[in-house]
Design goal:
- The chain has ten helices and six strands.
- With 193 residues, it is of the alpha+beta class.
- The strands form three sheets. It has a two-stranded antiparallel ribbon with strand order 1-2. It has a two-stranded antiparallel sheet with strand order 3-4. The chain has a two-stranded parallel sheet with strand order 5-6.
- It is globular, with a radius of gyration of 16 Å.
- The two termini are 20 Å apart.
Amino acid sequence: MTFSGRFLLNLIQFAAMQGAPLKELVALSGYSENDLHDENMRVAAQAYNTVIETAVSLTKDDFFGLHAGEFLNLSAAGLIGQITQTSATVKQALDYCCEFANLGCRALSLELEETAAHFKLGLNPDPLWLQQSPLSVKHTIDGYITFTLREFHTLTLRKNHPIKIYFNIKPPKNIREYERVFNCPVHFSKKET
C-alpha cells in the first residue's frame, strides 16, 4: 500500500498553514520536501498514516480532511485532473476518475454505479489500511470526497451538489461542517461510503 508523495506534501503544506511545523511533518514522511514533490514518489502506508495522524493532532482540526479538500489546489489532482478535464461527458470523467484513482492512493478504490436517475460513487478503503489507521482513512476519505466535488464543479462549470452522502463511520459530535461542505444530507453509520 503506497500513497503519492506529492499528495502527502499537499496535505503537509495545508497542515503548516494551520500552524503545524512543516519540517517536522516532512521529516515524519522519511523523505525530503524535494523527494515528496517528485510526481513518481510513493510513500508507504505507515509513514503516510503517521503524518496524517500527527497533522490532525497538531492542527487540532477535527475536520482536517474536509478542510484540506477545500484548500487543495485543483492542480493537486495531477494526471487524473488532466484526464477528466478532457472527457466528453461527466460519465466518462467519472469512469476515468475511478480507473486512475490508484495513481494517488492505491489503498482507496472507487466504484461507479449508474442508475436511471443518478450516479453512485463508492469509496472502499483497503481493510488492512482501515485496521492500521482508522483516523488516517477517515480524513483521507473526507478530503477525497470534498476535493472530488470541487473537481466536479470545475469540470461541469456548475455548483451541483450530491443528492446525499453516506459514511460508514460513526457520526461526529457536530455534523454541520459536513453539511456545510457538501450542501446535502449526510448520513453516518451506514454500511458503505
